[in-house]
Predict the 3D structure of the following.
Amino acid sequence: MAAAAGAASPADKERFICIYPAYLNNKKTIAEGRRIPIDKAVENPTSAEIQDVCAAVGFNVLLEKNKMYPREWNRDVQYRGRVRIQLKQDDGNPCLPQFPTRKSVMLYAAETIPKLKTRTQKMGGSDQSLQQGEGGKKGKGKKKK
């Protein structure tokens, strides 16, 4: 089996690296599957966001929507998906010289996902709902007194 894996070209889809959203999720512990430092991780990234970021920088990307991270206990659609990225060319050199390792790709994706338009728009909407929630809490406090 090792000989078959060695004979496969890095350009084969089976040889693309896998990135699951759990690798970049700041809500996860290392034991639950996070692979980057928590201060660089993102809150609940989706496989589609990882795909968008990696495709925009020029990677050859595949999105496998129905795949799940084995350590993920939650079966919701939000946590599904896996992104496969071609890291190396046929000759073994990196496709993009600024990303020589899988960790460099994960750190770049985690750094770029919060800047996506979908993320910035969602944040604007959630800020308003947080303010409304705080107002509700204040009202409840007054009633108790």
